[in-house]
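User: Before I run my own analysis I want an independent prediction to cross-check against. Here's the chain; please return only the structure tokens and, at the end, one sentence I can use as a sanity check.
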Amino acid sequence: MLSLYLSPWHENCFTCNHCQQPIGTRSFVLKDSNNYCLSCYEKQFALQCVQCKKPITTAGVNYRDQPWHKECFACIGCKELLAGKRFTSRDNFAYCFDCFCQLFAKKCVACTTPISGLGGSKYISFEQRQWHNNCFNCKKCSASLVGRGFLTSNDDIICPDCGKDF
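Assistant: Structure tokens:
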């Protein structure tokens, strides 16, 4: 005889409420006064991961009101795990910061690296082109043009002093 919460059971009577198989010494879960073997409990009641469709039995991640295993919640670009990390999304796909910047961020005309806007960083935009603030410099003398007037010469930007030579 098994004793469960001070209630005696015959070994053959202590069965899973769903599959009716004897539980014996296997792990089980008591839910709503019914006993379930672990496998049946997971199939019937556990959240299913959106990615792999398997039950989530330990801590998971909730993204867009959908459950994920921590191991399944990864960047769509590089597959880096995103749980507990900074990430962003586009078109319902999650991206790590680096992949998002490489794929979607505007690129600085001067240094060609992505302009992330991280931390409220500012950038300059002029005629469909963008520059990081620290890259917005005169092509001839390298003086910063942030907050100053400037001239254009083909695709270059120059300060008014260097523009006097034209």
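Sanity check: Residues 152 and 158 are 6 Å apart (CA to CA).
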